[in-house]
Amino acid sequence: MMENLVAKHLPELNESDLYIWRYVAAHRRETVNLTLAELARRCNASKSSVLRFCQKLSFAGFSEFRYALKSELDYKDPSTVEPVQLSKRYGQAISKALSDMLSRDFSPIFRLIDQSEKVFLYGTGTLQRMVAREMRRVFLTGGEYFYVIEGVDEIDALASTLTSNDMVFIISQQGRSDNARSFAELLHARGVPFVSITSFLDNDISHLSDERIFVNLDDIEFGDGKSYRVCDPYFLLVSILFVRYQEYRERKEPIA
């Protein structure tokens, strides 16, 4: 809950921050559709003040803050929702993820890919490694070869060879695994640009990354308090990144 996050960081917030929070708390649904400049204007504050408020709550910026606020608004307690067929709830989760990802601007990530001599993919677990391999396969159809880092041993071997001319995607769920965090710290220290792909907004890896992608995973509740986590959005993201990258390249091509 956003209130819990504000309470956690309350000692760091000044009167201006609290004024911004009071406005957001009273106009949540309206705020998710505002730009940084619009929110600043409504709070009689500067854009930098609003940005600092978001950062004090551990968000990288206003967009990440707004995304977290929207996710919270979209969440419904399963106990208050009328029973719906599992297949329908699955479809809703996929549609929501697709709509969200198609609305995002990935241009900074595409520029990193274009500027890099080599692109590496590292997944922290079984699912994440599958996503990395699928990303390599899909981008290869467009003529881009990405290197998949298969394990910790390969990280050790690569550590001394990676440069600022390379880039890395780190694919994790919570963004808190020891190996991934150590790798992220190494990349950050060596000035190697990297993109974090995680399903948690506030995590160690995303704070170090040059660019970050958050994948919103929904849990589908079914009998006896059991739930199924829909992880398909990771693979949807791969396809969307590929398609949008092709569009990005077409826009870059000079007109004859």
Order of helices and strands: HHHHHHHHEHEHEHEHEEEH
Give the overall shape.
globular
Strand % is 5-15%
Strand order of the largest sheet: 2-1-3-4-5
Number of strands: 7
Distance between the termini: 53 Å
Put the structure in a nutshell.
Helices cover 55% and strands 12% of the residues. It is an alpha/beta fold.
Tags for this model:
12% strand, two-stranded antiparallel sheet, five-stranded parallel β-sheet, single chain, alpha/beta, 256 residues
Outline the structure in words:
With 256 residues, the chain is an alpha/beta fold. 55% of the residues lie in helices and 12% in strands. The chain is built from 13 helices and seven strands. The strands form two sheets. Strands 2-1-3-4-5 form a five-stranded parallel beta sheet, with helices on both faces. A two-stranded antiparallel sheet has the order 6-7. Helix 11 (178-190) links the parallel strand 3 (167-171) and strand 4 (194-198). Helix 2 crosses helix 5, helix 4 crosses helix 5 (47-56) and helix 7 (86-102) runs parallel beside helix 13 (232-252). The longest helix has 21 residues, at 232-252. The mean pLDDT is 86.
Q: Helices, strands, pairings?
A:
Blueprint: H1 2-8, H2 15-26, H3 28-31, H4 36-42, H5 47-56, H6 62-74, H7 86-102, H8 107-115, E1 119-123, H9 126-140, E2 146-149, H10 152-158, E3 167-171, H11 178-190, E4 194-198, H12 204-208, E5 211-214, E6 219-222, E7 226-229, H13 232-252
Parallel strand pairs: 1-2, 1-3, 3-4, 4-5
Antiparallel strand pairs: 6-7
Helix pairs in contact: 2-5, 4-5, 7-13, 9-13
